[in-house]
Amino acid sequence: MTAHQPIATPEQSKRLSEAAAAIGYEIVDIAGFLDLVEEHANSQRSCLKILNKRATDMTQANTDVRDAVQNMAGKTSETAREVQASAELVRTSSEKTRSVAEWVHALAARTEDVSETLTAARTNNQQIASIATQVNTLAINAKIEAARAGDAGRGFAVVAEAINTLSQQTRDAAVEISGNIEVLTGWIADLRGEAGGVAKQASDVLESSGGTDSALSRIEESITAADEQAQRIAGQAGRVEQAMNDFRPALSGIAEAVESSATGIEQTHERVLRLIDTSETIVQATALMNPASSDGPFIGKVQALSRTISQQLEGAVETGRVTLEQLFDRNYRPIPGTDPEQYTTAAVNVLDQILMPVQEPVLSFDSKIVFCAAVDVNGYLPTHNKKFSHPPGNDPVWNTAHCRNRRIFDDRVGLKAGRNKEPFLLQVYRRDMGGGEFKMMKDLSAPITVKGRHWGGLRLAYTF
């Protein structure tokens, strides 16, 4: 008895196809979310590496600052002591200078007194000289009278002579004293003049000594304040070092946790990508099982169009419009001033002429179709639909959505579409529209070959 082989009905095949597509949709959506999470995790990992390095740099810098501040604090303390000692020495010298200045002041005052005394002595000496002259006159008169008296006046004459001699000596002494007084008066006058000048300078010294004392006091206060501030900074640097030492283990723990999470996310992402491949195999199989599924018309269309493109490219090579070397040129040359960057190759002009008439009409085949464009095995898309082939502007976000020709789409979907050699490949993916906007859609592709060489694939993207 032959075992009964159950055959799925068209309705069952349709439901299976829809379920497979739904699974693919969800898995791709999760993969997209994981892409974002992985991107954030990698960003956090990079930031933590930088933060950890900066923390190390800060710790080292703080250590250097602490050492420098402690050294400075020692220097300021030593300087403060030297300034205090110097200030004390200057104050001592200032006191001595002040004493000398005061003595000079007093000397100037005393020279005035001496000058007055000498003036009085000159007056007294003049009086003595006058008296001596009078005495001399009296002695002469006495001698005359003694001569008249004869023998009786002889003794008186001797006395008169002695008085005369004494008066002469007194007058001579008075004259000599007057001369000495004049000389002494000159000396005193010079001394008084010099003492006056020195006294003026002494007054200046006395006035400036007060300013010097104030300046010394301010210097002492400043250096003392600097010393206190240096000691406080040294203390703060020590506390910062302790805080950094406490902070670094916590930062290292966070870094290890993020690293572990990022590694887990990467591993999960890899598993999800493998799951996507599995889901796409299921979607592919269900599409093959049920040609009448919702994807059937699109599969037939993309296969027919890929054959048309292959034939026209071969015809262009045969007629000499383009060589195989030009057609398979993989030297993508950047187009200046484009953001996102666009590229050109040796065959873009011919590709525009062949691809655009084939790709553009298919947009009206079904309202679900978003775009139809051929890519080579590296994901390079030379010619896009007109609505995605605007000249680039200054806004990268706008360019991302509207200037999609001449771009390289080397993401997972783009590369698989360009490198697939099976009759068709059906993928589910999130299309990046720029500015953080994504659209979930199906990507159906069929291979393009030229003279037996695999050039790439024709992509037909449509919504669910």
Describe the structure.
The structure is a single chain. The protein is an alpha+beta fold and 464 residues long. It has 2 domains: 59-247, Orthogonal Bundle (Helix Hairpins); 290-462, Beta-Lactamase, CATH 3.30.450.20. It contains 7 helices and 8 strands; from the N terminus they run ααααββαββαβαβββ. The strands form 3 sheets. It has a 4-stranded antiparallel beta sheet with strand order 3-8-7-6, sandwiched between helices. A two-stranded antiparallel sheet has the order 1-2. A hairpin with an 8-residue loop joins strand 1 (333-334) and strand 2 (343-344). Helix 3 packs antiparallel against helix 5 (348-359). It starts with 9 loop residues before the first helix and ends with a strand. 21% of the residues are buried.
Q: Helical segment tally? A: 7
Strand order of the largest sheet: 3-8-7-6
What is the H level of CATH, i.e. the homologous superfamily of the largest domain? Answer: Methyl-accepting chemotaxis protein
What is the helix/strand order?
Answer: HHHHEEHEEHEHEEE
CATH topology of the largest domain: Helix Hairpins
Q: Which structural class should the secondary elements be placed in?
A: alpha+beta
**Helix-residue proportion:** over 70%
Range of strand content: 5-15%
Q: For the report, how would you describe the main beta sheet? A: 4 strands, antiparallel
Number of domains: 2
